[in-house]
Amino acid sequence: MSTLNIKPLADRIIVEPAAAETKTASGIIIPDSAKEKPQQGKVVAVGPGSKDNPVTLKVGDTVLYSKYGGTDLKWENTDYLIMRESDVLAIL
Q1: Whole-model pTM above 0.85?
Q2: How far is Cα 43 from Cα 46, in angstroms, rounded to an integer?
Q3: What's the angle, vertex CA 37, arms to CA 26 and CA 11, rounded to 5?
Q4: What is the mean pLDDT of the chain?
């Protein structure tokens, strides 16, 4: 895995989404058309925050984010999401 050379601004973070489930608990294989977009991922870059609002997340945190949060980004054949820290619902 290559290092990410993107530095987000202000309170934004970059998340690498977890892979979508390919099989159910009972063993049924899920086709690509029926897979749900994952809602958790690993933080790979963090912005500096603002003077009044420092960023509380750090690189390496696994987070749960809102379903429609973030902007999709493809960088060096890897999918990422850029989102505000406020789009993160919890740290896992």
Answers
A1: no
A2: 7
A3: 135
A4: 87
